[in-house]
Design goal:
This protein is an alpha+beta fold and about 170 residues long. It has helices spanning about 25-40, 130-140, 155-170, and strands at about 45-50, 60, 75-85, 90-95, 105-110, 110-115, 120-125. Bound molecules: ligand K1U and zinc ion (ZN).
């Protein structure tokens, strides 16, 4: 397993729609392993392939935050939303590509999703609570959308400016 670097906003790769995955190969298995390792190390509760510069429709997540509860890593390939609840829930979201910036985003409280697993089989599940928020945030990444795209232009611009400064400072060392 290897740790991958996480792209920081603004980056044109984070604005692109990702390509479907044709088949679940050992390379995809290795990619998913690397992504889970990178997500746990960050630490984060989700990570989408474009965040490490891989423009394919795959994300990983594990929303178990309690250290006394067993990890629950999930790998979703070519995920799609089948149903969303009318009820909505606001959550203060963060993003590993936009470190230290958080904002309330309202999304459907529950979603039913279908995806391909690493076993090559189709899976379907309803997600609630933080799992639903995270799954929608990650699916957005596969469609080139960031949580700041749900904010007003002033707040989005303020966060983008902070990120541009962070990238400049990091480049200088
Ligand atoms: O996609 C990402 O950038 C990962 C992101 C996922 C996410 C967070 C919050 C709401 C929706 C989606 C993160 O994991 S940010 C880090 C984070 O939320 C966290 C880190 C450590 C412990 C608990 C949460
Ligand atoms: Zn994110």
């Amino acid at each position: 397993m290897s740790l991958r670097s996480i792209l920081l906003h603004p980056d044109s790769r984070l604005k692109k729609v990702c390509d479907p995955i044709d088949s679940v190969t050992p390379e995809i298995g290795k990619l998913a392993e690397d992504m889970l390792e990178t997500m746990y190390e960050a630490p984060g509760i989700g990570l989408a392939a474009p965040q490490i510069g891989v423009m394919q429709r795959l994300f990983v997540m594990d929303c178990v935050k309690d250290e006394d509860t067993a990890q629950q890593p999930m790998v979703l390939i070519n995920p799609e939303i089948l149903w969303t609840s009318e009820e909505r829930k606001s959550y203060e979201e963060g993003c590993l590509s936009i470190p230290d910036q958080f904002a309330e985003v309202s999304r459907p409280a529950s979603v039913r999703m279908r995806w391909l697993g690493l076993d090559g089989k189709t899976h379907e599940e309803e997600f609630d609570q933080l799992w639903a928020t995270c799954a929608q945030h990650e699916l957005d990444h596969l469609n080139g959308k960031l949580f700041i795209d749900y904010l007003g232009p002033m707040k989005r611009q303020m966060i983008t400016r902070k990120m541009e400064k962070l990238k400049r400072d990091r480049a200088r060392g």
